[in-house]
Design a protein that fits this description.
Shape: elongated
Number of domains: 1
Oligomer: single chain
GO biological process, one term: cell adhesion mediated by integrin
Strand order of the largest sheet: 1-2-3
Keywords: Cell adhesion, Disulfide bond, Glycoprotein, Integrin, Membrane, Transmembrane
CATH class: Alpha Beta
Distance between the termini: 8 Å
Family: Belongs to the integrin beta chain family.
Protein name: Integrin beta
CATH superfamily: von Willebrand factor, type A domain
Helix content: 25-40%
Pfam families: Integrin_beta (PF00362)
Number of helices: 5
């Protein structure tokens, strides 16, 4: 299960995961007979001090207003475990970055999302 932080500081990582897509599952199948992959994402807790709760910032929390961002959320299960690499690529390809207020190395969202997986 690939759990990804979609906060704004991870924008480059999301681009890379979208590019790698099915390569992740193929790599798993290189070391196991029954490789499957799923996907979930998190940003952070949707309360102060983790996100800006101003209505406009909740709608588009990214600092770059030209970039399309999704509202923040604590955790989202996107794709159950599957052996279908195209389905993984499609679902990951739909993901948008979001934004938050804490430092990139903040652990509040990761800890909360990890407990939900």
């Amino acid at each position: 299960y690939y759990l990804m932080d979609l906060s704004y500081s991870m924008v480059d990582d999301l681009v890379n995961v979208k590019k790698l897509g099915g390569d992740l599952l193929r790599a798993l199948n290189g070391i196991t007979e029954s490789g499957r992959i799923g996907f979930g994402s998190f940003v952070d807790k949707t309360v102060l001090p983790f996100v800006n709760t101003h209505p406009e910032k909740l709608r588009n929390p990214c600092p770059n207003k030209e970039k399309e961002c999704q509202p923040p959320f604590a955790f989202r299960h996107v794709l159950k475990l599957t052996d279908n690499s195209k389905q993984f690529e499609t679902e990951v390809g739909k993901q948008l970055i979001s934004g938050n207020l804490d430092a990139p190395e903040g652990w509040a969202g990761r800890h909360d999302a990890g407990g939900r997986v």
